[in-house]
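hiii, so i know i said id send this last week but things got crazy w the move. better late than never?? heres the sequnce for the chain we talked about at the cafe, plus the structure i predicted for it. fair warning i was half asleep when i ran it
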Amino acid sequence: MTQELAIVQGPPGTGKTYLGLKVVETLLRNSSIWNGTEEKLQRPILVLCYTNHALDQFLEGISEFEE
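okay and structure toks below
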């Protein structure tokens, strides 16, 4: 959470998606802190997945966050 780049890797069923969603949720809920309140810049979050299916699952998880 304190670095610009984080890599989560491991075998299937070890909670990579769960952990990634928690990290993104935390970043989005605290975006005013890491985006800066003075600047209206939106810093992107880059998510890379090995398969399209994994990316679809991740994006579905993000879409369930409350705004």
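btw The chain has three helices and no strands. thought thatd interest u
miss u guys!!
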